[in-house]
From TrEMBL:
Part of the 30S ribosomal subunit. Forms a tight heterodimer with protein bS6. Binds as a heterodimer with protein bS6 to the central domain of the 16S rRNA, where it helps stabilize the platform of the 30S subunit. It comes from Paracidobacterium acidisoli. Residues 1-44 are annotated as: Disordered. Residues 9-21 have a biased composition (Low complexity). InterPro entries: Ribosomal_bS18, Ribosomal_bS18_sf. The gene is rpsR. Belongs to the bacterial ribosomal protein bS18 family. Gene3D superfamilies: Ribosomal protein S18. Residues 22-43 have a biased composition (Gly residues). This is Small ribosomal subunit protein bS18.
Amino acid sequence: MADETTIQRAPEGGASSSGAGPRTGGHGGPRAGGPGNAGGQGGRKFFRRKKVCKFCTEKIDAIPYRDVRLLQQFVAERGKIVPRRLTGVCTTHQRRLTKAIKQARNIALLPFAARY
């Protein structure tokens, strides 16, 4: 016969071992100002303009690795290449841009990483 006093239960209102307490950074619950919400009432959706490739609109085929001012627009402060979803550059131009940035880094026109 099992003794009922040895059975322990987790407190119902406290934090459990799953980490789903109120102070954890878990996913759950509605978020104010999330995607599709303009922050106001009325159910109005947020409209984001489609990003257009800068090189396609200006009809630039070759991306010169010596044009540091152009390339710096696509390199973050830390020295990382900014991804396509943030810049709006098309796939083919992103590949050419990456090659040009790497060439400029190799001949010391652009830094590999930021200075601290």
